[in-house]
Amino acid sequence: MNGSAPMDVVVIGAGPAGLLAALRAGDLGARIALVTRDAFGGMAAHDGPVPVRTLAQAARLLRDARQLGRYGIAVTEPVLDYERLLKRVREVAGDVRTHAALREQIAAARVTVHEHVGAARFVDPHTLETQRGLRFRAEKFILCTGGVSRRLPIPGFELTKTHSDAWSLTTVPPSMVVVGSGATGVQVASVFAAFGTQVQLFEAGARILPTEDEDVSAAVAESFRQAGIVVREAFGTIERFETTPGGVRMVFSRDGVRDSAEAALVVVAVGWRADTSALNLAAAGVETDSRGFVRVDAQLRTSVPHIFAAGDVTGRRMLVPQALQDGFVAGSNAARAPMISVTDEVCPIGSFTDPEYAQAGLTEAKARQAHDVVVAVVRFDSTTRTLIDGRTTGFCKLIVDRATRKLLGCHVVGERAVDLVQTAAIAIAAGMRVEELARVPLSFPTYTGVLGRAAAIAARQLQVDVDRARLAELL
Question: Which residues contact 403 (CB under 8 A, 6 or more apart)?
């Protein structure tokens, strides 16, 4: 753009948030430049859900192949060719970039795309320049640069790897220590355990998956242990990492007692920070919070009114669906449409571990803080489809407000948990009462039908309570 007319909006970053922001602003008639340091698609296509889910699919196929004998199908023991798997991962990522990453829509909206421009930085509040020498002037900007793994100030930390390094390994390591048991850490642990790696999963807190419902954490931890993963919760404090002949040793202590764990590879997944170090935000006057994320209001405006931010860089909900929502809001507002705000009322979350887990709405503990609730649980070892498929690990938990009968939360562990919970999220967002969900004739036998059964149990319990109260009044 050197010397050319100023753009209406420049979007920095071409991940989910940036793509939707550019598309939305372009649809509204703004002149848009989409600038990305690397390739079109961002972390989601290259280092996030797409490659992770592809690896998880390989793990699922291995697991399914080992069950074929139960159904009378004779096969030899499956053998993983990791090099061929990585080739498939690259193929899938390429297909997504070509066919599923909004490229055609972006072109139709007349968005000018600049890929592989290197790091971008602000020169002043209305001027941006890139490492490759491009210079942009614009009326508005939208920051969608995403995040990077958080690093720890611990001696020897340079010996550790991030989840990104784990996904790009050329061979399956014989052993692995995973530090951190949020969504990223448990996915790394689950996938490589399925590939034959001896995995140790360490969590400093009292339980793995600390943001999930407590029953979900307990069920996933138990399943991991049964699969041979060593799960160490409340393990203490890491003192240092050091090299060993076979890899890396992590030295840690708890209550004055020192211990250690060794593996060929140590992967640290202890959080995410905003990827803003190269942006020179000070030149634009954009403020960040105490964690380094860009401060935004409900309309995703930063401290500088003409600069917006969307997605992981804001530190709000660091997930693809929420990044897409952010992008739509920021793109709308930057293009001078009537101002709209972001909402976080329902946020379905799930992970492609083995077993899968997912949630929508409130956890049981959160719900009980403000509501009188009814909780219905259906175990996967008692439903038709799970018995047919031999996938009997897990449960579906439904949380309902006793007074309004509306759904407050849904938590699932087990086969197809991520897909199942999407239906619950729709019901919660629609404000459905539990008896309304129970009356939907869901197909049989299906995994989604488990949700219908849980709804029927909760509705029945509520009706029994009403009938008993009426009877007591009569007596």
Answer: 371, 372
| Whole-angstrom distance, CA of residue 273 vs CA of residue 149 | 6
Query: For position 101, what pLDDT does the model report?
Result: 61
Which pairs with CB-CB distance under 8 Å and at least 24 residues apart come from 292-296? 294/143
Q: What is the pLDDT of residue 448?
A: 96
Residue 446: helix, strand or coil by DSSP? coil
Q: Whose CA is closest to 52, among 241, 255, 319, 230?
A: 319
Is the model's pLDDT at 44 over the cut of 90? Answer: no
Biggest CA pair distance of the chain? 87
Rounded-to-integer distance, Cα 436 and Cα 405, Å: 10
| In the predicted structure, residue 46 carries a pLDDT above the cut 60 | no
CA distance to 177, 189, 246, per residue, from 346 (Å): 34, 28, 46
Residue with token string 């404090």: 237
What is the pLDDT, as a whole number, of residue 459? 94
Residue with tokens 């105490």: 290
Neighbours of 250 (CB within 10 A): 25
Q: What is the mean pLDDT of the chain?
A: 92
C-alpha closest to that of 357 among 148, 232, 181, 198: 181
Residues in the chain: 475
Name the phi and psi angles at 460, rounded to 5. Answer: -65, -45
Q: In the block, which residue shows the tokens 């929420």?
A: 322
Percent of the chain with pLDDT over 90: 78
Which backbone phi and psi does 256 adopt, to 5 degrees? 80, 0
